[in-house]
Amino acid sequence: YQRRVHGTLSECLFFFAHYFWKMALPGRRVFVVGVGLTKFTKPKKDPSEGPHYPELAQIAVTRALADACLPAAAIEQAVVGNVFAGGVGQRCLYGVGLESIPIYNVSNACATGSNALALARQFVAGGLNECCLALGVEQMRPGSLGGGPSKGGPTTLDLHLAVMVKKCGVDAKAPPMAQLFGNAGREHMKKYGTKPEHFAMIGEKNHRHSRNNPYSQFQDVYTLPEIEQSPKVFDPLTKLQCSPTSDGAGAAVVCSEDFVRKHGLEGQAVEIVGQCVASDPSTATDSRNLHDASVMHMVGYPMAKKAAETVYKQAGLTPNDVQVVELHDCFSCNELMTYEALGLCPEGQGGPLVERGDCSYGGKYVVNPSGGLIAKGHPLGATGLAQCAELCWQLRGEAGPRQVNGAKVGLQHNLGLPGACVVTMYRRPDAWATVPPKRKQPGGMGFPTEAVVTLEAKL
């Protein structure tokens, strides 16, 4: 640098032109090289009964590091997502030797886990770090998720609830979240002719998919009539079409291309080829100018559509390039609407897509092979990392009996109210497709590593 600055004018101009050209390049390539997950479980009635969130987090992190064949010392920064317990990152990570590094705590409703992943990816893409950790963990209370109208001052959902209340009213006996998404489903039915059976078919599919996922909270399989005849929560939703509250944790190790090559991790690296974090447009919270899709907009359709379109442009790919999808099926109504937002089918054609079987094995896409939130479970802070883990196992061909044949490109959608949507696209690099993984045992059907067995034996 000093020699060039003191050289000829042309040399100086060349140097600064080259410098600013380099600065204008897109961020570096980022890869997921290790993922870890706990089994998702029903929250305990006794809050003193464990395992508690630090133990859950430590299992997920230990598994992710073992999957990546890396020591804790390789992690330069960590981002930890949690909704209900506050800033838990330090308490979770000190137990696995991640001390003295920057630890960031994030909370962004049900999209918290993907927000943690997005920040960790940005640290690497921007050149700040070579290797970072994203962790999501949640320990919840039994029963349905809250979020009802406030009795006093402002709440995080008051702008959204105002749209629903003004257009649809409110049912004091039904869970608030089921009302939000159930009313969106009713709008879709009225606008496009969608049938309650279409939503029930999604519940049947996701419970059927979960049978082969050892991490799922529920692994029972139900017939379509059993789904339809399960207790009504809020029409058209029945109990088996709603995600439960859950305890669990997930983690992912992300790194640069140089780091992948230096540590010989090409055989297990999955590239994040596109990612977008979006929030609501003004129409989502406009209770003064209601229209025939007001509630659909309020529960996240337009921000999912915007995020997906951005990701396709970033990756240079289209929905037709995708084989496997993990999306935010907090309720079956939302899964169907999200098919359309992600461009998996035209607007209003989610019902026919379900009828054709184009969201399960043998169809055009396999959506939620993990069982989704409905069957796998939904520990809010961990959900985004669980989706990431499932797609990495699928693209690495490690998902066992739930493996999607020919999976090369995966798409992830993680939603949080109010106003948080993260869409991420993954691809296994063709150049590394024949390289064997460095780690000995894949985690898609469990993590029987000595380190994990030792840690779990202590719980």
Write structural notes for this entry.
It is a single chain. This protein is of the alpha/beta class. The chain has helices at residues 2-5, 9-24, 53-68, 89-93, 112-125, 158-168, 176-192, 196-210, 224-229, 257-262, 294-298, 301-315, 332-341, 350-356, 372-376, 383-395, 450-457; strands spanning 30-37, 77-81, 103-106, 131-138, 232-234, 237-238, 248-256, 270-278, 324-326, 366-367, 409-416, 420-427. The strands form 2 sheets. The protein has a 10-stranded mixed beta sheet. It has a two-stranded antiparallel sheet with strand order 5-6. Helix 5 crosses helix 16, helix 8 crosses helix 13 and helix 8 crosses helix 14.
Question: TL;DR of this structure?
Answer:
Helices cover 38% and strands 15% of the residues. The chain contains 17 helices and twelve strands. The N and C termini lie far apart (56 Å).
Topology:
Layout: H1 2-5, H2 9-24, E1 30-37, H3 53-68, E2 77-81, H4 89-93, E3 103-106, H5 112-125, E4 131-138, H6 158-168, H7 176-192, H8 196-210, H9 224-229, E5 232-234, E6 237-238, E7 248-256, H10 257-262, E8 270-278, H11 294-298, H12 301-315, E9 324-326, H13 332-341, H14 350-356, E10 366-367, H15 372-376, H16 383-395, E11 409-416, E12 420-427, H17 450-457
Parallel strand pairs: 2-3, 2-4, 9-10, 9-11
Antiparallel strand pairs: 1-7, 1-8, 4-7, 5-6, 8-12, 11-12
Run of helices and strands: HHEHEHEHEHHHHEEEHEHHEHHEHHEEH
Q: Going across the biggest sheet, name each strand in turn.
A: 3-2-4-7-1-8-12-11-9-10
Query: How many individual β-strands?
Result: 12
Shape: globular
Rg from alpha-carbon coordinates: 22 Å
Structural class: alpha/beta
> How far apart, in Å, are the first and last alpha carbons?
56 Å
Instruction: Give average pLDDT, whole number.
Output: 91
Low-confidence sequence ranges: 1-7, 9-25, 450-459
Please identify the oligomeric state. single chain
Please describe the biggest sheet, giving its number of strands, its sense, and whether it closes into a barrel.
10 strands, mixed
**Strand share of the residues?**
15-25%
Q: How many helical elements? A: 17
The level of helicity is: 25-40%
